Amino acid sequence: MGDGQRSEDLLATQRRYYDLRAPDYADESRPSDRRAEGLLDPALVRDVVDELAPAGDVLELACGPGGFTRDLVRHAATLTCLDGSPRMLARNRAEVGDPRVRYLCADLFAWVPRRRWDAVFFGFWLSHVPPSHLDRFWDLVAACLSPGGRALFVDEDERATGLEASRDGDGTTARRRLSDGRSFDIVKVFWRAGDLEDRLAGAGWDARIRPLGATCYVGSATRR
Fold first, then answer.
1. What is the CATH number of domain 3-24+41-223?
2. Structure pTM?
3. Which residue did the predictor score with more confidence, 39 or 2?
């Protein structure tokens, strides 16, 4: 099996896993699928979103159950939330409960944007993009942004590697388990901030990335 097909298979498995995981995701009363939770404190999420201040028309990619959505909507004039999991979108809609949010269900690697936004945000998503698909993903982000628009992102860096219970040899895949015992291999790439800045610079982006908390980073990027 070639690397491209392996990545496609992993992405399909990943979408399936997170759709099934949606009812338990970020629920600290349920068993963790990792050695330790890597979630940010809600107060820190609020501070980070306030710092980034995503104004105007905002698109949130891989929005999940709404951990960032509820703060993004405080800043945005309009907010569009996209995710590949119908169950995640249902949770987001129920938990955020804001009629100003528009929801789209789509596979990020097949979706074609039909408009542009002033800012594109993605939280804890970039680490789930295979290295073979990274440039393709950032091309999508560029296609979503209005001239002068900003890409804003939060994710785990290399300090979070030890949180995974099981990883493959090349450091791009982790194994996660549902509460019923079923296991799934997903993409999990822990970028170092400097390496990611360099990779984005090579793809035509000016990025500024800094550490956030004990295991994460926050970044902002614009097209040159």
1. 3.40.50.150
2. 0.93
3. 39
